Amino acid sequence: MVYSDKLNFAVIGCGMLAQSQHIPNIAHSKKMVLHTCCDLSDDSLRTCKDKFGPLKTSKDFNAVINDTEVDAICVATTEKLRLPIIAAAAKANKPVYCEKPLARTLEEMYEIQSIVREAKIPFCVGHNRRSSPAMREAHTIFRSHMDNPKPCPWRFDREGSKRPLLADNGKAAISVRINDDWYSWKSWVFDKQQAPFGPMLFEMTHFTDICNWFLAAEPVEVVAMEQGLLNHAVIVRYKTGELASLVMCANGTFGYPKELYEAFGNGGAVVVDHMLEIRTAGIEDVPARKVYPMLTDRHPTIGTEAGLLGWLAKKQAACKEAAESNDPMRIFTAEPDKGHAHALELFVNEILGDGPIVCGVDDAVMATRVAFAAIKSAAEHRVVKLSEI
Description:
Dihydrodipicolinate Reductase, domain 2, single chain, 2 domains, Rossmann fold, globular, six-stranded parallel sheet, alpha/beta
């Protein structure tokens, strides 16, 4: 397919996520045009028209997909509507960016995978952490170290040549900690019709995808425990010996960073704190610490040291403002760059043949399979093999 200088995107599903991320990111892009906003809600379409100025609005996703002016589709509906939209886009040979998780059920997920593979359309799933500047650099550092380790001269090698040969020597492990506050969750989260598996699916796929990506290995079994809807602990074992552990707690606070990733292997460490900073140790020729810009910072004169400590200072100021003004939305300031805009920009490169696959359907299916294995493990109180999923 031949495209013009900028790709015309249609966004189908114009709720809070789309209005806070995908729609403004497309509207402000130098590579994309916000061509159409499509939703069943008149209020949502009116808001989109007034705030972001799409060329068209519509309530009919089939008409939008088959509009010859539309080059690509961004799907941000709830999971129950994604399969028919993706099927229609595949039939029309239109590239698709789809929010995660890919589907509500394994059956729908595998059907989507089959449709995308058969149509051979460019397809990207919104595991946006992969496109965060901090995560991309951390991944590059870690994979380079794992594939071509450079031993540190100061590593304490007590036994030297007498060290035993261990089969798991050099194998990597990653730890992921997620801190969330369930008071902020939208009502659909508690609706078993819309979210039958809760955050073990709609949140966990973000983090199982990152583990698979960093470890570059095939997951083979999962064991998980949960305490109701809010607290989860998951361990994933990989075919070649790697391990991932994930702890997700929704009884936490927005006053502290949400995500901490710690990857270890070959005597080295790469740590990503809330996508605000990378810290490394035991890896030659890389910085010990690097910080990354924050988005929508209302307090540029506070926390000028940047990184984690700078963010904490800014957050404390924001929380004070929120309390004094009785407006909890004031707590949101200086947010980490989680990669939403970059994911779409990189997907445009993929569509045009100028870049690699960002997060394809097969990677998304694997991340979702791990999440479903964790769901099954927690429910049945046993280790679950991926071959069962």
